[in-house]
Amino acid sequence: MGSAALRCFCYGSLFTSVTWTLLLFIYFNFNEESQGFRHVPVKGLEPYKPFPRKISPGFTRDSNKGHGHRPLDNQGEAKADLSAELGMIFNEQDENVRDVGYQKHAFNMLISNRLGYHREVPDTRDSKCKKKTYSAALPRASIVICFYNEAFSALLRTVHSVLDRTPPELLQEILLVDDNSELDDLKKDLEIYIKENLTKKVKLVRNRHREGLIRGRMIGASHATGDVLVFLDSHCEVNEMWLQPLLAPIKENHKTVVCPVIDIISADTMIYSSSPVVRGGFNWGLHFKWDPVPVSDLGGPEGFTAPFRSPTMAGGLFAMDREYFNTLGKYDGGMDIWGGENLEISFRIWMCGGSLLIVPCSRVGHIFRKRRPYGSPGGHDTMAHNSLRLAHVWMDEYKEQYLAVRPELRNKDYGDISDRLALRKRLNCKSFKWYLDNVYPEMQVSGPNAKAPPVFVNKGMKRPKILQRGRLMNMQTNRCLAAQGHPSQKGGLVVVKECDFTDKEQTWTYNEEHELILSNLLCLDMSETRSSDPPRLMKCHGSGGSQQWVFGKHNRLYQVSVGQCLKLLDVTSHKGYVTMAICDGSPSQQWHLDN
Ligand code: UD2
Ligand code: MN
């Protein structure tokens, strides 16, 4: 029973996270206006813009000695390489930081640590946004950041980005809510860091039990004293002038709730890149999704820079008048750990007299991960529990749409919802039908059985430009890298074989995305694995990271997300196995792509 529930939760988590990533990814690839992955500056070939040398912490080959999380001193022989190869592994300790980081946080903690707590990020705002001015008399914000087992460096970068890019007169406080984390450095070390390095405006609240992000945020909000609450995830970086555009519409109407555009920080490379302007929707499985913004909502003299209506919010990043948060019923305290609260508050805002807007001139980066690295106590599927609650409180007869997608949940217990039903009555909220008709009319065309119309118009997918094509030769043996089995076999290994210049199956293509594609079929890939695992052939995903390879000095072939170089394992063995290893310029690590 328990293990089935755990499995269910894990699959659920995986599904949601993957859906998130996929949706964003699809949008980038199919939207002409997107400035997404295909435009992200890539390490290696060109100067690495997002991390200007002057603010990048330097590191030495003993980079992680002492406190693994502190920004490193600005010294060291590897400095010249830093901007190009920030993820490079120099020793076992680096390898450990990277592997443990992926396991505990599902992102590259080695790069996160090396970035330190301050960095510049590209200003992703539209040029019209940069010309806008805001009244000096704006409400003051309390920033609430709830975290559970967050990487120290990611948490501190979130906090410092707020301190660095927020006018002090608008910042009432930053409330860090520790949701009973287990990681050692989030205990005493964090307290010491706050005490010694941060302003008194940064306050730490500790939950004595794991509450989950929903009750965690309510606890944070109960300590807040500012006019407006701003919620952020614990792995964000706010951009230039992020707060003023959020506060202005709230000042105008305290029932307006606003979200910034969520830019993308790559989990593999920590590269910050711009997101397309999209709005929030959902499907009948009660999963959040991104939708294009109807053109009618983007008109007006301000064009693409004016706040526009969004049927739902993604959940993590939004600002709301504090009094209004309280009178509107905070969150549903019966919801656990993760999931569903974003749709619940979105429906509640619209149905009970407020409005939810996305503000294109406010940009905040968020690390998007491929999976959620934590579970829930007891392994419960909290997304299902929370969704059932919200369906029964807010969706009237439309809850049947959800139950049609998830019939196994029909008789599942979801706890007591009488308080929430009373709240709905007290606030005199409108029906879910009203919400669908007036806020999300697009939803009605796609019932559970109807085929959803394609949301994104494919205006011709841009294929990355090919830079080079040829055989990938190991220079020590003059033998060539090829598939161990057939090059179309997903998950297959690559090995070094005798070169055959007539064999198309030994042809590699190297493109501007820094992908290495064998025989025009699959990409050389180091998915979120331990850095000592060998690379495999996988479907090309186009989002960099695990499929990004850079030819560097000494003919090395460097893998960006692993921070290591491709190496022929045993020169004398005819098996020709390859592996990833610390880059040392040795002959077994030298590769040449010839035409
Ligand atoms: C998205 C939202 C997230 C939340 C979630 C649905 C964004 C960018 N993120 O998922 O904020 O709305 O959808 O519930 O819109 N945390 C705790 N205690 C826990 C679990 C998590 O404090 O038991 C913290 C966690 O450290 C993080 C935040 O809650 O700061 C959100 O968790 P997440 O980053 O795993 O959620 P995400 O971004 O996948
Ligand atoms: Mn998050």
From TrEMBL:
GO cellular component terms given for this protein: Golgi membrane
Q: Which reaction does it catalyse?
A: L-seryl-[protein] + UDP-N-acetyl-alpha-D-galactosamine = a 3-O-[N-acetyl-alpha-D-galactosaminyl]-L-seryl-[protein] + UDP + H(+); L-threonyl-[protein] + UDP-N-acetyl-alpha-D-galactosamine = a 3-O-[N-acetyl-alpha-D-galactosaminyl]-L-threonyl-[protein] + UDP + H(+)
Query: CDD domains of this UniProt entry?
Result: beta-trefoil_Ricin_GALNT11 (cd23440), pp-GalNAc-T (cd02510)
Which residue ranges have biased composition labelled Basic and acidic residues? Answer: 62-75
Q: Which GO terms describe its molecular function?
A: carbohydrate binding; Notch binding; polypeptide N-acetylgalactosaminyltransferase activity
UniProt protein name: Polypeptide N-acetylgalactosaminyltransferase
List the subcellular locations.
Answer: Golgi apparatus membrane
Q: Which cofactor does it need?
A: Mn(2+)
Q: What is its main location?
A: Golgi
Q: Which residues cross the membrane?
A: 9-30
